[in-house]
Amino acid sequence: MRKGLILEGGAMRGLFSAGVMDVMMENGIDFDGAIGVSAGAAFGCNYKSKQIGRTIRYNIRFADEWRYCSWRSWLLTGDLYGADFCYKELPAHLDVFDFQTFRKNPMEFYVVCTDAHTAKPVYHKLVKGTEQDLDWIRASASMPVVSHPVHIDGYDLLDGGISDSVPAHYFESIGYRKNVIILTQPAAYVKEPQDHQKLLKHALHNYPEVFKKLEHRHVAYNQTMAYIRQLEQTGQAFVVRPPRPLQIGSIEHDPEEMKRVYKIGKAEGKRQVEKMKQFLSE
């Protein structure tokens, strides 16, 4: 039975997941494969490269850097999270991503993206350990309206959360039947319909299928959460989630707020790690 790690997105809520994952890495927990969506992909890739602490380190370091994440970046480049800074300069020079360890680690790593024209999910395994893999991660985290679609391998791609926020069904379909799932919303969370639908429809006039998917995303998300609760209750998955709403937005410039969310993740990871080890060993 293949053991997998499934990582929800959620922009800066992903710092919770980063805290959990750092505890898991510190405790030597390995998986046969992992799959990340949006921030789950951007932060989760550090699990395969075995870089404990990297996610919180560079987020704090560049909290005030407009090229990293800002409305200024969006106005000047069309990307809220600056593409060149986040996926080229930062991993190549400023907080180096360990491509060599990423390649050598036998753990498979998948990302989820959304085809901007069909709004269907695109699942891709990162196998090269090169800058092209970072393009796939960027695509997975390219939120609609505040990001350009990423053109790669014949696709125009947007955020994977549009089409498959927590890809439990997909991972099971390719053989991962014993999964740890890290969510970024608490157990009581219920997704509501998208706000400002008329404005969103106008902003996405070139991608009508994406708008249609977003219109009904709350239904699909809540169905997925019901399925994950079923997996959890029957012992088929181990779920880690925040104990309370994280109350952090897509943009955060306060390092203390980043640390706060990360520390919640570390505390929850420490609380759950022994139970997680037992689940994975059964």
UniProtKB/TrEMBL annotation:
Regions crossing the membrane: none
CDD domains: Pat_hypo_Ecoli_yjju_like (cd07208)
Sorted UniProt keywords: Hydrolase, Lipid degradation, Lipid metabolism
An example Gene Ontology molecular-function term: hydrolase activity
InterPro entries: Acyl_Trfase/lysoPLipase, DUF6363, NTE, PNPLA_dom, YjjU-like
The protein's name: Putative patatin/cPLA2 family phospholipase
Keyword Lipid metabolism included in the entry's annotation: yes
BP terms from Gene Ontology: lipid catabolic process
UniProt xrefs under SUPFAM superfamilies: FabD/lysophospholipase-like
Record-annotated active site: S38 (nucleophile), D159 (proton acceptor)
Motif DGA/G: chain residues: 159-161
Organism field: Catenisphaera adipataccumulans
Pfam families: DUF6363 (PF19890), Patatin (PF01734)
Domain PNPLA: 5-172
Organism placement in taxonomy: Bacteria, Bacillati, Bacillota, Erysipelotrichia, Erysipelotrichales
Motif segment (GXSXG): 36-40
